[in-house]
């Protein structure tokens, strides 16, 4: 595989050299890495067989149509440019794959543990065990290997002949097996470990102090490590007084006398099967308090004393003086008003943000109702005009009927009809009123109807009734199709409730059955 990776890199280098004289400029949106391979890609594109046929096919035709929409004046050049950029990206992928594959193979060869003389290399101290995948082959020993150097060649030829015969007949004993060997890390000798103990003790003396200056004056928590960095020991701790020092390093020195107390702290070092102990004398002293901490401790002690005296009363009196100072107590109350205020503002901002979405939903609902009401509207209009009413009178009649039945619900088509009637009553011409009607409804069906009505006013009523009847028939067919879509949409919405009901029914059936079997 290494030769393949090297061959790909060499081929790309030759391609870069051959295409050095190609003329092509990178677009601003071309990725930086792809720009290096634009010239080789163009060189290849010109010389690959079937350049003209590459523009054909369904995908090529579709790409040309899309490019024609985006670039009406240069679709052919953009098609060639697109193919060159795609080829440039492919060359970049080849280079990345070859380089990464070669690096991974090189790193794998450098990490090999099997030497030429058949030895497996261990990890050094502290690096942990390693796993090595090996392939072992067993071959039948040749007769020439078991003979002395002075034997004649006739015996060797005979052995070779027997070996060839065994290979031909399949009677050889060659085999191959893959095994995984776990190699522990290199171990220290006991003498090497004992030589490290003074260094480990010095390390621990510095480490366990934590934030304390010395072990002779310990006032804050100690740092008791579980291992010494750079050394193979595992460390556990014992304390001579667990009430003062715990094994996690916590120091309980609130009640310690001013002169302090000495505690024997023991580190148990273990490595392999051997253990050693190192002891440290620690003087635990009371904590140093700041002025604020001293004042707080004094006040808490005074309050505790007052609480003890008034233990059987319904309240206790707070101290009024401390160290000659008058004390004024106020209760700190929690105030969540700011949080509530911010939450309400956030809710208002969210409502403001999604108000447009609600408006869009209402517009979609209006358009849906207009679409469903169109067959009824065009049928009534055709019926009234067939009875002899002109368009204006038909609109007035439908608007008047809607006003009488408006309490049944709002219908956007007839609301628009009322608006058309008001416009015509206020002096707007019929042509403008019908055009306004089509624009407000926005659907192509209403625009077509408005166009027919305007054409009727401009060119006469010949053929208008037949056109409206044809439009009414077409609208009813479209209404059937919309009804089928609504039914499919309703079935999809009911799918989740039906699945939930199925799960409930299964639980109602299976739970009693399980209990009955358990009772048996």
From TrEMBL:
Region (Disordered): 131-174
Coarse class of the protein's main subcellular location: membrane
Entry GO terms, CC: plasma membrane
Segments traversing the membrane: 87-106, 494-518
Keywords assigned by UniProt, alphabetized: Cell membrane, Membrane, Transmembrane, Transmembrane helix
Annotated Pfam families: aBig_2, T2SSF
Domain Atrophied bacterial Ig: residue ranges: 212-284
Locations listed in the record: Cell membrane
Biased composition (Low complexity): 144-156
Topology in the lipid bilayer: Multi-pass membrane protein
Listed InterPro entries: aBig_2, T2SS_GspF_dom
Domain Type II secretion system protein GspF residue range list: 377-512
Name under which the protein is recorded: Type II secretion system F family protein
Species assigned in the record: Candidatus Eisenbergiella pullistercoris
């Amino acid at each position: 595989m290494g030769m393949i990776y090297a061959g790909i890199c060499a081929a790309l280098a030759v391609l870069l050299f051959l295409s050095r004289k190609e003329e092509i400029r990178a677009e601003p949106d071309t990725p930086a890495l792809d720009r290096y391979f634009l010239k080789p890609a163009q060189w290849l594109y010109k010389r690959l067989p079937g350049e003209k046929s590459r523009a054909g096919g369904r995908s090529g035709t579709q790409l040309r149509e899309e490019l024609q929409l985006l670039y009406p004046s240069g679709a052919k050049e953009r098609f060639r440019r697109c193919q060159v950029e795609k080829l440039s990206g492919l060359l970049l992928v080849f280079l990345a794959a070859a380089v990464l594959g070669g690096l991974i193979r090189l790193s794998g060869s450098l990490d090999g543990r099997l030497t030429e003389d058949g030895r497996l290399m261990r990890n050094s101290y502290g690096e942990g065990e390693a796993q090595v995948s090996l392939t072992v082959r067993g071959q039948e020993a040749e007769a020439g290997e078991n003979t002395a150097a002075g034997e004649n060649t006739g015996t060797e030829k005979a052995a070779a002949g027997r070996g060839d015969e065994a290979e031909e007949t399949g009677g050889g004993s060659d085999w191959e097996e893959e095994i995984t060997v776990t190699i522990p890390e290199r171990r220290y000798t006991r003498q090497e470990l004992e030589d490290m103990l003074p260094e480990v003790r010095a390390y621990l003396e510095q480490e366990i102090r934590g934030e304390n200056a010395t072990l002779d004056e310990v006032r804050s928590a100690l740092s008791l490590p579980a291992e010494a960095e750079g050394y193979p020991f595992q460390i556990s701790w014992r304390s001579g007084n667990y009430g003062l020092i715990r094994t996690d390093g916590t120091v309980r020195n609130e009640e310690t006398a001013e002169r302090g107390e000495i505690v024997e702290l023991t580190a148990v070092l273990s490595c392999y099967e051997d253990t050693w102990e190192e002891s440290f004398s620690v003087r635990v002293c009371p904590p140093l308090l700041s002025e604020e901490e001293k004042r707080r401790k004094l006040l808490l002690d005074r309050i505790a004393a007052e609480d003890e005296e008034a233990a059987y009363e319904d309240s206790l009196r707070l101290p009024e003086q401390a160290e000659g100072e008058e004390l004024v107590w106020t209760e700190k109350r929690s105030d969540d008003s700011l949080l509530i205020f911010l939450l309400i503002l956030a809710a208002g901002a969210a409502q403001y943000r999604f108000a447009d979405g609600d408006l869009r939903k209402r517009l979609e609902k209006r358009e849906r109702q207009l679409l469903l009401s169109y067959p009824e509207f065009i049928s009534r209009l055709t019926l009234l005009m067939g009875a002899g009413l002109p368009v204006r009178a038909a609109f007035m009649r439908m608007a008047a009927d809607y006003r009488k039945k408006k309490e049944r619900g709002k219908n956007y088509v007839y609301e628009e009809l009322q608006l058309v009637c008001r416009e015509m009553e206020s002096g707007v011409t019929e042509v403008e009123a019908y055009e306004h009607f089509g624009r407000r409804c926005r659907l192509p069906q209403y625009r077509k109807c408005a166009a027919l009505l305007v054409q009727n006013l401009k060119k006469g009523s010949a053929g208008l009734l037949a056109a409206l009847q044809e439009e009414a028939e077409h609208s009813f067919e479209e209404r059937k199709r919309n009804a089928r879509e609504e039914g499919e949409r309703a079935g999809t919405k009911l799918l989740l409730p039906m699945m939930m009901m199925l799960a409930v029914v299964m639980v109602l059936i299976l739970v009693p059955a399980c209990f009955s079997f358990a009772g048996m």
